[in-house]
Design goal:
Blueprint (H helix, E strand, L loop, with lengths): L4 H4 L5 H14 L5 E2 L11 H11 L14 H15 L10 E4 L2 H12 L5 E6 L4 H8 L3 E6 L15 H6 E6 L12 H14 L2 E5 L25 E6 L12 E5 L1 H14 L5 H11 L3 H24 L12 E5 L7 H12 L1 E2 L13 E5 L4 H13 L7
Parallel strand pairs: 1-10, 3-4, 3-5, 5-6, 6-7
Antiparallel strand pairs: 2-8, 7-8, 9-11
Helix pairs in contact: 3-10, 4-10, 5-6, 5-9, 11-13
Bound molecules: pyridoxal-5'-phosphate (PLP).
Length: 392
């Protein structure tokens, strides 16, 4: 018995390889500082837990949920979105759908829109799912390089016309994982224009919409007039509310896009647990002050890490959003893999190599802000003692 050939085309999942290396180091007795995967280490906030306790005691949450989410959930999501981004007028029946976390909805969007021979336009470096789900759907991906000299925004003019003609989906993600880059409304305007010209659906993965610092508020693509004609946006409770394990989010936008995604989901999953939808409604109701408190934890860690790396010679500016610091490897290392392997061997620090997010990530590494302040300081201290310096 052999697995389907589509699995042969899927590269090994990046974090599985990192986990394997961690386990080996742990087995050797190393005190590991794991800044590898973007998974918040803090507990889910109390108002969410309380809502979950109440919801789970109510037997009406125990049966199959509606496929596209409860009406109350979709209405709460639309209301939250309007309060947060100032964009309203959503029809919760046709323009909003619950997701079992964004990863699920991202994958199923490919199944809804990509036929064999169709192209997807995907950034590089990027969250790996856009590429693997293109492969699962039997499509071809065209890589849009994200380069530091373009502030990690793709160059739409560089996409050949014959590729744009065959493209169904264009994926973006700002605030960006892994680079921490931000999008401007001008860039979103260009995207909407491109999508209308080439009949492409823009999919904006806004997983870090609430994870921002220094007063910065990440925008939605729907702040651009006309975006609703051509775009979907993927919001998630995972990162901002420390809810990665709960698997809940929503997709909002173009009714044809939501309809296609809904048709796939109806045939594949049976929706998100109703009690978890209730808990997410509580998260949407969280005060700005409380959210700010949650984010200040990461902001402090970011400051410790960026200051520490700068003291070792790294040329970094502090990212205004996401869970990540994206940094170049010292020139004395030939590849990202060589650098992160040395970092693990000499310092017990786990970070992913930039090229794990695509070929254009080569020469970089990503540090997740998912360990407490003292461990962050310890990591910098270990790097200092082991002689790590940035040499340009
Ligand atoms: C974490 C992450 C996701 C997945 O979020 P879930 O809602 O937990 O599935 C999607 N996109 C990006 C860019 C991410 O970093």
């Amino acid at each position: 018995m052999k697995t389907a050939s589509r699995l042969d085309r899927i590269p090994p999942y990046l974090f599985a390889e990192i986990d394997r290396r961690r386990d080996e180091a742990v087995a050797r007795g190393v005190d590991i500082i794991n800044m590898g995967i973007g998974d918040p280490d803090k507990p889910t906030p109390d108002i969410v837990l309380q809502a979950m306790h109440r919801a789970i005691d109510d037997p009406s949450t125990h049966n199959y949920p509606p496929y596209k989410g409860t009406k109350a959930y979709r209405e709460a999501a639309a209301a939250w979105f309007e309060r947060r981004f100032g964009v309203g007028g959503w029809n919760p029946d046709t323009e909003v759908i619950s997701s079992i976390g964004s990863k699920e909805a991202i994958h199923n969007t490919f199944l809804a829109f990509v036929d064999p021979g169709d192209f997807t336009l995907i950034p590089d470096p990027a969250y790996p799912v856009y590429r693997t789900s293109t492969i699962f759907a039997g499509g071809e991906y065209y890589t849009m390089p994200l380069l530091p000299e373009r502030d990690y925004l793709p160059d739409l003019d560089a996409i050949p016309d014959e590729v744009a003609r065959k493209a169904k989906l264009l994926w973006i993600n700002y605030p960006n994982n892994p680079t921490g880059a931000l999008a401007t409304l001008e860039f979103f305007e260009k995207l909407v224009h491109f999508a209308k010209k080439h009949d492409v659906l823009i999919c904006h993965d806004n997983a870090y919409s609430e994870m921002a610092y220094d007063g910065y508020k990440p925008p939605s693509i729907f702040q651009v007039p006309g975006a609703k004609d051509v775009a979907l946006e993927y919001l998630s409770c995972s990162k901002a509310y420390n809810m990665t394990g709960w698997r809940i989010g929503f997709v909002i936008g173009n009714a044809m896009g939501i309809g296609g995604l809904g048709q796939v989901k109806t045939n594949i999953d049976s929706g998100a647990f109703k009690a978890i939808q209730e808990a997410a409604i509580a998260a949407f109701g969280m005060s700005d002050e409380r959210l700010h408190e949650l984010m200040s934890v990461y902001q402090n860690r970011r400051n410790i890490l960026v200051d520490g790396l700068c003291s070792l010679g790294w040329p970094l500016t502090a990212p205004k959003a996401t869970l990540y610091v994206w940094a170049p490897i010292p020139k004395s290392f030939k590849t990202s893999l060589e650098f992160i392997s040395t970092l693990l061997d000499k310092c017990g620090i786990i970070v992913p190599p930039g090229n794990g997010y695509g070929a254009y990530g080569e020469g970089y590494f990503r540090i997740a802000l998912t360990v407490p302040d003292d461990r962050m300081r310890e990591a910098i201290d270990r790097m200092d003692k082991a002689g790590f310096r940035f040499d340009a």
